[in-house]
Amino acid sequence: MESINVALESPTLSRMVTPMKPSDFLKNHWEKSKHLVLHGDVQRFYELPGISDVESLENVLAIYKNPVMVVGEAVIEETGGIADRFLVDVSEAREWYEKGAALEFDFSDMFLPQLRSWMGKLKNELQLPPGAGVKAIVYAAKNGGGFKAHFDAYTNFIFHLKGTKTWKLSENKNVVNPVQHYDLVEKPYIPEELSTYWQGEHPEDSLPEADIVNLVPGSFLYLPRGVWHSTSSSEATLSLNITFTHPVWAELLVAEIRSRLVKNEIWRELAVNINFLDEKSKQEVLHKLDTELKKISDNISSIKAEDILTRDSEDFDLYHITQAVFRQSLASKHMY
After folding, report:
1. Do 236 and 165 form a contact (C-beta atoms < 8 A)?
2. What is the sign of the dihedral through the CA atoms of 31, 32, 35 and 41?
3. What is the spatial distance between Cα 53 and Cα 115, in angstroms, rounded to a whole number?
4. pLDDT at 317
5. Is the pLDDT of residue 334 over 60?
6. Does the structure show a pLDDT above 70 at 157?
7. Euclidean distance between CA atoms 271 and 195, whole angstroms
8. For residue 140, which of 116, 105, 90, 99 has the smallest C-alpha distance?
9. CA distance 11 to 1
10. Are 173 and 253 in contact (CB under 8 A)?
């Protein structure tokens, strides 16, 4: 990550990483993508507006007006192994909780305006691009809830509110700066794009080289993207995650290239499947594209860093965008 001007005031970040100085966090953890665990009194979390509204599962169920993701062995048993998670109506969430499923309340900030306010301030304090996404997720499990080893393509700030949850945190020696999520249970399969920059063998499922951390009420965890991690617990747990999705330089560059290409009507033509064309037609398509590619080389090579930076306010995470719209629509129905 690029260096941040730590001279700027960071009141929200300061309250999160106390007793550490924000400048030390930014230099030693944020910029180096190195996880951080801080323990303390859980009451300090409630100084951040909105967190007290999710201090119990009952509170969360009362304010949340969206489908809830249920995850774990209870779901696997219910589906005969076909799936390990699915969405249920919030009215059914308690039943699944009692069965042992972990509950995931995605986009919880939609129902917590005070929380959403300081999340936006935190985004500015971290000097993230305008196009970076941010949301809150509440996780709750009665017992045994957890997630198997995986890594994410987004950043998490985790406020642990109830119970004890064991985290395994391991350096990712396979991928630097991943741009997609990956579950270790998928091995040996690796998605095509991810395989282009994957190195070495998969780690063992148990992450034997991991740091083992027990989060208790009042524990704070900064989890950078790409860190291998898994979670487990044997008692009721509750936590709040603030999650950031970040555009990467490649996305900004592709956006700038696209903006230039679409000015030419040729690049706005519908693509065809050349496997269905006769040889003559196939060669005509290939020749046309090669001709246009030669024409655009000068245009693309003229792109400057300033041109790329103008794209930083665009939304690149399609999942985040579509889910936000979908869930906002569902939430609105409960208001009328």
Report:
1. no
2. negative
3. 9
4. 64
5. no
6. yes
7. 26
8. 105
9. 21
10. no
In the 8-state DSSP scheme, what is residue 22? H
Is 0.90 surpassed by the pTM of this model? no
Q: How far is CA 245 from the centre of its chain?
A: 5
Rounded to whole angstroms, the Cα distance separating 90 from 57 reads 12
Handedness of CA 26, 136, 111, 60 (dihedral sign): negative
DSSP string, 132-155: -EEEEEEEEESSS----SEE-SSE
Rounded CA separation 145/139 (Å): 10
In Å, how far from its chain's centre is CA 89?
23
Q: Does pLDDT of 209 surpass 70?
A: yes
Give CA–CA dist 331/326, Å, rounded: 9
**Residue 285 to residues 8, 165, 266, 267, 291: CA-CA distances in angstroms?**
54, 58, 11, 12, 10
* pLDDT of residue 8 exceeding 70: no
Can you tell me which residue has the tokens 């009194």?
41
State the helix-helix crossing angle for 279-301 and 249-261, rounded to 10 degrees: 110
- How do residues 171-194 score in pLDDT, each as one tens digit? 999 999 999 999 999 999 999 999
Q: CA angle, 45 as apex, 228 and 104 as ends, to 5°?
A: 50
* Contacts with 260 (C-beta within 8 Å, 6 or more apart), sequence order: 296, 299, 300, 303
CB neighbour class for 195 (10 Å; exposed up to 12, middle 13-18, buried from 19): exposed
Nearest-angstrom CA–CA distance, 45 and 218: 7
pLDDT of residue 298: 77
Closest by alpha carbon to 239, among 162, 164, 169, 135? Answer: 162
d(CA 108, CA 135): 7
Q: Residues 127-132: what's their mean pLDDT?
A: 91
